């Protein structure tokens, strides 16, 4: 374990940056840089999941659902696991994380660094097998475990509705016209979508995106297009105005395009959130490269797809999520040649 000390005050109020995606419409495109939640944590900082980890643990403790001596357990593809492990451990709980054995190395190391026990599941069995393994562990000793359950816990979308939506609305001076986010648990798109719909009186268009096929390599996202896959209770499609489908190749291409675009140019900071510019500049890049995670590339691809379909107009204000930083993926094809 590293000597990193979790500081929960760094969660929320993340920076908003302006990005050039080379689209036809004269629209402003912004992105929330979510690794600034717990930005100085080892193995890539925090992620968008830092928000819900805090929200779910806070809620459980306030309701008395989580008590001292209980082990916190959660199935995850990586980011939720590391963030729950970090926050639960600093609060004094033992943690066990169930994850597929092909999870990105940076995510695995982040979980290990937090001191959590990991149960690996053969990735070839699909993600539903990860959830089933977690349920089996709990069933063997129900009183010993507390599962935050990111797939059913209303504190997941509720946290985004209270925080992410407000941050985006205020940082864009209320001018956001499109919000784009990927679907994993559905918490980000559902909660932020609800919040922005309320704040803009329905003016903001809410766009969710999924991988275009079941076998994909866009970490954290779920293929839900057909009904034979686990559907999270935290995902409410009625909030969405449209759903886009993104290929792994397009997600990776857009992530690499961002790296190339900002190799020599600074990434413009539209709103610093709670951070000073020096901190943002220090943690925005890795090895002086602007590298983002796979789902962030997917978000950029979804925005480009909207533009290509003629869905964006001059003067629009589009916001999507940079869910995590690219150094969590240094061991996969996306960034293994660069980091």
How many β strands by DSSP?
Answer: 11
Helix and strand pattern: EEHEHEHEHEHHEHEEHEHHE
Head-to-tail CA distance between termini: 22 Å
Share in β-strands? 15-25%
Gyration radius, in Å: 19 Å
Proportion of helical residues: 25-40%
Principal-axis shape equals globular
Major sheet: 7 strands, mixed
Category from helices, strands and their pairing = alpha/beta
CATH third-level topology of the largest domain: Rossmann fold
CATH architecture descriptor text of the largest domain: 3-Layer(aba) Sandwich
How confident is the prediction overall: mean pLDDT? 96
| The CATH C-level class name of the largest domain | Alpha Beta
Instruction: Kindly report the spatial arrangement of strands forming the biggest sheet.
Output: 9-8-7-11-2-1-10
State the helix count.
10
Q: Which parts are unreliable, with pLDDT below 50 for 5 consecutive residues or more?
A: none
Number of domains: 2
Assembly type? single chain
Protein name: Pyridoxal-5'-phosphate-dependent protein subunit beta
Pfam family, one: PALP
Domain Tryptophan synthase beta chain-like PALP: 10-324
InterPro entries: Cys_Synth/Cystath_Beta-Synth, TrpB-like_PALP, TrpB-like_PALP_sf
Word description of this protein:
The chain folds into 2 domains: 8-45 and 154-329, 3-Layer(aba) Sandwich (Rossmann fold); 49-146, Rossmann fold, CATH 3.40.50.1100. It has 10 helices and 11 strands. The protein has helices at residues 49-63, 79-90, 105-113, 127-140, 155-162, 164-171, 187-199, 248-261, 277-284, 294-308, and strands at residues 16-18, 28-33, 71-75, 95-100, 117-121, 145-146, 178-182, 205-211, 242-246, 269-271, 317-322. Strands 9-8-7-11-2-1-10 form a 7-stranded mixed β-sheet. The protein has a 4-stranded parallel β-sheet with strand order 5-4-3-6, with helices on both faces. α2 links the parallel β3 and β4 (95-100). α1 packs across α2 (79-90), α5 packs parallel to α7 (187-199) and α8 packs across α10. This is Pyridoxal-5'-phosphate-dependent protein subunit beta. It comes from Halorubrum aidingense JCM 13560. Residues 10-324 form the Tryptophan synthase beta chain-like PALP domain.
């Amino acid at each position: 374990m590293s000597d990193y000390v979790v500081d929960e005050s760094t969660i929320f109020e993340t920076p908003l940056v302006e990005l050039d995606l080379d689209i036809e419409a004269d629209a402003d495109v912004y992105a929330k840089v979510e690794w600034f939640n717990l930005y100085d944590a080892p193995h890539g900082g925090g992620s968008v999941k830092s928000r819900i980890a805090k929200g779910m643990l806070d809620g459980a403790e306030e309701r008395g659902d989580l008590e001292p001596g209980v082990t916190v357990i959660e199935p995850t593809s990586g980011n939720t696991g590391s963030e729950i492990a970090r926050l639960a451990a600093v609060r004094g709980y033992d943690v066990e994380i169930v994850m597929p054995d092909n999870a990105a190395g940076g995510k695995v190391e982040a979980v290990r660094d937090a001191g959590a026990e990991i149960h690996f599941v053969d990735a070839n069995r699909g993600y539903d097998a990860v959830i089933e393994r977690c349920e089996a562990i709990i069933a063997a000793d129900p009183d010993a475990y507390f599962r935050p359950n990111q797939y059913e816990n209303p504190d997941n979308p509720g946290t985004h509705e209270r925080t992410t939506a407000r941050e985006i609305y205020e940082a864009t001076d209320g001018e956001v016209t499109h919000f784009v986010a990927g679907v994993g648990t559905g918490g980000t798109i559902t909660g932020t979508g609800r919040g922005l719909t309320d704040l803009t009186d329905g003016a903001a268009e809410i766009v969710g995106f999924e991988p275009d096929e079941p076998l994909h390599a866009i970490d954290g996202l779920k293929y839900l297009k057909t009904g034979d896959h686990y559907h999270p209770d935290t995902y409410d499609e009625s909030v969405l105005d449209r759903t886009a489908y993104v290929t792994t190749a397009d997600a990776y291409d857009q992530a690499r395009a961002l790296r190339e675009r900002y190799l020599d140019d600074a990434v413009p900071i539209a709103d610093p959130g709670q951070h000073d510019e020096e901190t943002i500049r220090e943690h925005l890049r890795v090895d002086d490269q602007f590298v983002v995670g796979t789902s962030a590339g997917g978000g950029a691809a979804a925005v480009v797809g909207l533009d290509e379909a003629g869905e964006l107009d001059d003067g629009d204000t589009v916001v999507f999520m940079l869910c995590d930083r690219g150094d969590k993926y240094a061991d996969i094809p996306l960034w293994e040649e660069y980091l």
